Amino acid sequence: MSSDEPSLGEPSDISPINIVDEMKSSYLDYAMSVIVSRALPDVRDGLKPVHRRILWASHEGGFVAGRPYRKSAKIVGDVMGNYHPHGDSAIYDALARLAQDWSMRVMLIDGQGNFGSMDPDPPASMRYTEARLAKVATTALLADIDKDTVDFQDNYDGSHQEPTVLPARFPNLLVNGAGGIAVGMATNIPPHNLGEVLRACKAYMDNGAISLEELMEIIPGPDFPTGAMILGQSGARNAYSTGRGSIIMRSRYEIENLRGDKQQIVLTEIPYQVGKSGLVEKIAEAAKDKRIEGISDIRDESNREGVRVVIELKRDATPDVVLNQLWRHTPAQSSFPANMLAIRGGRPETLTLRDIIESFVRFREEVITRRTKYELAKARERAHLLLGLVIAVSNLDEVVRMIRASSSPAAAREALMARDWPIADIAPYIRLVEAQEAEIEGDSYRLSELQVRAILDLRLHRLTALGRDEVGSELQGLATAIEGYLEILGSRIRLYEVMREEFDAIEAEFATPRKSTIAPAADGIEDEDLIEREDMVVTVTMTGYIKRTPLDTFRAQNRGGKGRAGMATKDEDVITELFVTSTHTPVLFFSTAGKVYRMKVWRLPEGGPATRGRPMINLLPLAEGETIQTVLPLPEDEAEWANLHVMFATARGSVRRNSMDAFSNIPSNGKIAMKFEGEDADDKLIGVALLTEEDDVLLASRQGKAIRFRGDDVREFQSRNSTGVRGMTLKDGDEVISLSILHRAGIADMDEREDYLRFAPWKGEKEGEPTMSAERYAELRAREQFILTVCRNGYGKLSSAFEYRRTGRGGQGITNIDNIERNGLVVASFPATQEDQLMLVTDQAKLIRIGLDSLRVIGRGSAGVRLFDVAQDEHVVSAARIEESSEETADSEEPEA
Fold first, then answer.
1. Is residue 537 a contact partner of residue 548, using CB atoms and an 8 Å limit?
2. Which of 662, 741, 667, 736 is nearest to 697 (CA)?
3. Pairing of strands 263-269, 309-313
4. pTM of this structure
């Protein structure tokens, strides 16, 4: 081995390091650098380092308000070369954002040129645009920065000094908000109104224990630069109290009337950080996919005067419905996820509204204190020189003699400093200026070296009477200023007065009215509050199409008419459900799979009499092969639900009773209502109805049988899985087709019931008078119900419910209608009156609406009369009662559809 080669055992400068420890340490260093020095704003001035460096470099270069604009490339170059060693594109993007009035609530950069748009278009290249500091940045963010108000630090290479924070005079973190993504954390603070924030700061100064509710009376919520509406205060309240919250924003709109009864919706303000062109595209996509119905055209007519997105509606479209679909399916209604994270005390913290205001007020106390100390030191330094000048001009002859007698300037300086000079009338000034001396010894005063140098440098013109007066006035003014500085430093009350004066000045010069309005009724608002109450006819087809049609679309006809087209269906499709209700009514949808879904009527698609509607699979989360079997409208007032039960009936004659509470909360994906499994696998749900414990249940079968029993004969089930108990015993081939609910008036006393039926008002021939009292007779007449039975071949009848005697649950029942061979099987059987109207639908999609006042009441076991003149091979498949008086119409029939 050569002697020049090191031996293996010799020590070296290489030592082993655990890679896990090295990775952990390096990653933590990187993470903290990103968190503190790049991505998160400081709670004091609300700026991230790149923004702070842009403002400081512009201030240092003289690119301020009132001076000419400078190329943005010059500013970016200064920032990148001196303070921010990152890419120029990142710096320019940050600078451009400070000049965008749709991004900043108070712009900090005054830009000239194309700085982008809210579409969002990018800004022009930095070589084309020009910029300078906005007046508010110079006046309110950088003011007093040269008075030792903040600390400075070396830049990245030690060649320059940069401020660690700007001496901001308003809480920029709240006013302009902030957004950034660090390592493992992110911030997203909404902008606020400058005047409101400053008033909140003053309120905190008046009451350090101010509550959140009191602060929110001053700051009700964010104030976005794009305006729009904020729905409620719950999101803002959460953000202000916990640091996190979701704030719902909704576009501001106007509805304009056009020719031909058409209307258009015009969006004039859109949510914050939503691109306008992207919003227009999303609206167009939603209209194309039929998620929004009723839109005929979309145009962006925005210009320099403001946003104007025009949504032209079809002639039959309802603007409120389109708006609700717009809010639901497009960014026209968006949420701002507030996450109020900022650097406080050198570390990231999630802050409340009160925390931010408190931190800023404490910061302003420090800034004003440091500024006052700086100004006090400068004033005392100047006043110290003026004291020497005052003594010199007061003893001018002696000073001149001593100077002339001196051999050199140094000798003159020594002689003047060694002499005791009488203080005369300047003793109060000496005590004020020379604060480091506890008291003045005797009646004399010795000049300092600085004072003597000022005397020797004194120009002759200052020795005139006018010059002496100037020196005295300046000293007196400085003395007054020093007293003021000492008062500020010695009294927090006085310091707060100065701070309040500065807030008032900033508010008076730069505050603007609020742009975003707080919707007063937005907390818990429901979309149906915007929908007008209107009676609707809801129709459902066998293949699962549904629609709602305004009731007044159908006019009444006479009995025996030909009807009109009610729905355009396919040849193999028929209408199976039809009911009349209000747009605000909640509706339960019971499916063949035994699940229940819930939806408000106004959410259903609206269509004309000849339209088919939309598939329910597009409205409800139905599984493959699952269809809707029963649709049950509920009372609109939920207070009525406490006294209600839900009665189920199946085709095999089973019944089940549940509390309404079991179906009060239904998730969007539905819940189990009844399970058909095992022996009941081939059974199906034929009806669901609401009842109280004082009601009876009427089941009608397809072969003309019916049974009536007490509703409370069916015990209340807690489970939603069972098919229940036996309600009606059926013959082979028969099945239950209708479930009806009847009240019990006049059904208990058999003799009384028979007495009334012999002398009922609808009887054609009567012999004698009833034995009951006239009052009881009138009461039974007022409470009498009637059962309308409709058969497949267009026949039907109206019979008194008193004829359906009550029996025990589980029997075979009694005759409901006779002559099934002629009439066809029973389609429906339900309560109705002669004041009601009836809507019948055939399997060929023909519909008729007739008044039941033309139908006389006949016996329960009779065969009935013709209701609908159906064509050959045409059959009635659905019937519905309309609770309103018959409208008087002409005897002429509409042409057959």
1. yes
2. 741
3. antiparallel
4. 0.62
